[in-house]
Each structure stands twice: as structure tokens, then as C-alpha cells.
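ingest -> fold -> write
write: protein_1
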Amino acid sequence: MTRTEPFEEIDIPESELTFEALHAAGPGGQNINKVATAVRLKFDPRSSSILDEPTRERLIHIAGSHLDRFGRVIVLARRFRSQEMNRKDAIDRLKRMISQARVPPVVRHPTRPTLASRERRLHAKANRKRIKESRRNQIAED
């Protein structure tokens, strides 16, 4: 998988998604009071056929507070005034999370500090020592 794969190319089977329509909160007048436009999408990464094991683990880590107690990823979409647009928004946000999880983390190879950085560190320590010594001498004179 390449790092620049757009999230639109991810094809999630409809059978793995569960949608629930709810009344959205906030301003919107009569429409928001009468019509259930907000959408809650539920996706279980543990039973998904499109995820390999490393991607599954990274998705669970990335989801964080979007996981429910059963380990399902919950996406709440209520930005738009229509249920269809919110449904599409929820799917897009889930796809974006999955595409982010498909990118393996870059492994950091530790390097040794450069000579200049060691000298800067020692210079800063010596300077800090002088500051503290100057304070100690003033207190002793009082």
C-alpha cells in the first residue's frame, strides 16, 4: 500500500456497517425537531474482512475515544441538514481513519548526538552552574 492512497479507493462492504438515524442537536428550527438527520455509523474492526492484523491494531489505536465498550468504531455525523449527506460524511470519515491506519509508522533509528550538540549541552550546563553559584554566594553574605 502506498502512502498517498486516497481514502475513496477503500471499499467497505455495506454488511460491515451499521447506521442509526438520530435527531441532531443545536440550531435548525423545525427541521431539526422533526427529522432525524444525524447519523451514527458503527464499524467493528475485529470482524472486518478488509483489514489485515497490523491495520486493525492501528485503527483501534487511532480511533481512541471513538471506540465503544464492544470495540466498535463509532462515527457520529451531524454536519449537514440531510441524512444522506451525513451518511456519506460518516463513511468518508471512517475511510479516512482506515487509510491513516494502513500507513505503517516510520521506524526511528536512534542517532548519536553530534559534537556541536554535546558542546552546546555542556556549555548550557556550565552557564547554569555559574548562575546557581552566583545566587548561593549572595545568600551566604546576608
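write: protein_2
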Amino acid sequence: MAELQGKKIANSFRPLGSDLCVRIATPVGQVTFWVYLLIGIVLCGGVPIWVELLRHFGIGATPNTESIRTAMNAYYPAIGCAAAVQLAFASGEKKYLNSFSFFAAFFFFVFSGLTLLLEKTPVTPKSWLIGVVGCLLAIAMWWIANGLDPTYQDIGDPDAPLGGSPQSPLVGNTTGFTI
């Protein structure tokens, strides 16, 4: 291993891979995580896509496949970049996770720019594929960013009904109270 000012430089790809695996596996069995993912991210976050799909299938205005593609190309950079920035803020002292987050945000930014350059009328199968892959990658980025968030975990604190450990000191004081 190389040394830098007396400190060993480790391979940070291993802890990154391990951290990503934990973030991917942890929420699989959590109902709250799945409900938020499906309702919040896919259904509500994807409203522009759903609106354009409804329009395409005859409910509302004139069908337009370019509008569906545009909605998809606006959805995935917003979800993907926001989730990447969220992960960067939550990464704490883990530089490798912070770097991964910035790389992901940069990826979504560049990927969305490339889709604008590749947009052609009529919509090509390649542009559909890029839009769908972008949306799936954005949802995966949200999954990674929120996989360990206690907000989406169904396991409660076992001490919550008891108010915590009876050995812990009580907070506050009685200064200023008179009897």
C-alpha cells in the first residue's frame, strides 16, 4: 500500500460496495419504504409522465409521444440528482460515499444533456430506451439514498414505549418552580 504522510491509503471501493449493498438490501422487506417509493416517487413524482400517458391513450388532449418522452427526460434528472445530493448530505465522514454521490449527480446531469441532443422527431426506440433506463436509474439512486433512512423503516425503537432506559439521567431541571 502506498503511504501519504505516514497514513496508509486503503482501497475505498470495498467499503463503497459494502455500503451500497447494505443500502440496497435493507429496505427490501420494509412496507413503509415500498409505499413511499410507489406512491411518493413513482406515482406522485411521475405525475407528468402519467398525465402524458393518459393523453396519449385518448383521455384529454391530442396524443403526442414527444410529450411523454419530454416528461420522462424531465423526471429522471430531477429524481436522480436530488437523491444523489441527498446522499451526499447524509454521507457524513464517508468520503467515498460523498464522491459516489457527486459522480451520480454529474452522471444524471450529463445523461439528461445527452438525451436532449439525441431527441429527434418522431420518437425513436433509442430515445425511449434512454428515457426508461434514466427513470429506472433515478429510482435506483433514490433507493440507495434512502435505503438506511429510519423514516422508511418499519422497525420501531423497542425503548420508545418505556421512555428509554431507566438508568439514564433525567433531562431538565426544576429551577424556577416554587411550591
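write: annotation protein_2
The chain has a mean pLDDT of 85.
Residues 30-152 form one domain.
pipeline exit 0
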